Each structure stands twice: as structure tokens, then as C-alpha cells.
Amino acid sequence: MTNHIVLFEPLMPANTGNIARTCAGTDTVLDLIKPLGFSVDDKHLKRAGLDYWNKVDINYHENLPDFMETLGEKDQLHLVSKFASKDYTDCDYSKIEFNHYFMFGKETTGLPEPFMRKHSEKAIRIPQDDTHIRALNLSNTCAIVVYEALRQQGFPKLDRTHEYEHDKLK
Predict the structure, then answer these.
(1) What CA–CA distance (Å, rounded) separates 116 from 78?
(2) What are the b/e assignments for 21-55, b being 16+ CB within 10 Å?
(3) Does this entry carry the keyword tRNA processing (predicted)?
């Protein structure tokens, strides 16, 4: 079982860099669907990802249909959108036989509306107060969703054994 964060035509290098860092720290694959709104050599992208960019398993896809062709029958696609009716916590991500792909839309416009209508049963949302903000930050949203999946999966391959070492803090 592998978790994937899929970014559809991301525009902001800082968001993508932060998401790449989350992917590196959680052993999550990052899928980027072109066109990208920046160069992967962009200094802001590298700065946000720090020295983690080369530690991330990244797949590049030429467009949305190209990405969709890579999905197999053992892959579960989850479309993250504030317009979905099902909460992200209402899904079962624990099945070890599946790869989970969490797709996030472009920062300015989200996922294409026709695509969302066609796959509406795959849409999940993070509850938020829409009267105060338009949307949560993309990198924060990715972290919330991937950590819920990891929690349900028992945090596979993640270190949970750090002991508090008081003497190192002196």
C-alpha cells in the first residue's frame, strides 16, 4: 500500500515545496500533473522543500488524462474539494491492498468542474468555516488528509519510538 499526493497543475512553488517536505517525512509519493506554474529548479521551490526535494518519490504526468491512465484496479482515487459532501474522516484508508491517491486542485480554481462531476462519488472534504476564509492552505490540507490515512494505516514505516532525552536539551 502506498499513499500518493496528487497536485493538479500547481501554481505556487512554496506550496509544492512544503508538500514535498511532507511527502519526504511520511514516505508518500508526490504526483505532479502538468502544466506546472513554476520550474522545478525554482529557488523558491527548493527553499520550501529545503534539502528534501531529492528525497521525494516524484511522478510527473503530462496532463490529467495521462495521470488517470496510470491508475489500476487496486488504486483508490480521492478528490479533495471543499465542495464535496463526504468528510475525509468518513473514508476507510486502511485496506492494505490499495494505493490511495489524494488529488488536490490548482490553488486558484481547484479541480476541473467536469472532472469533479464525473467522479463526484470520490470527492472528500475537510470541514471548514466558509464565512471567514475561501479555502485552507493547500500544503496544510495535504498534511491533514495524508496523516488521517497514515493514522488509519497504523503509521507504517514512520518512526514512533523517539524517547524524550532530557540531557540532550541542556
Answers:
(1) 11
(2) bbbbebbbbbbbbeebbbebebeebbebbeebbee
(3) yes
pLDDT of residue 148 exceeding 90? yes
- Give percent of the chain with pLDDT exceeding 70: 88
Binding site for S-adenosyl-L-methionine, by residue number, is: 80, 105, 126
* Residue 148 parent element (H or E): helix 138-152
Number of residues that make up the chain: 170
Which tens digit of pLDDT belongs to each residue from 17-52? 899 999 999 999 999 999 999 887 756 655 655 567
Q: Which residues are annotated as a binding site?
A: 80, 105, 126
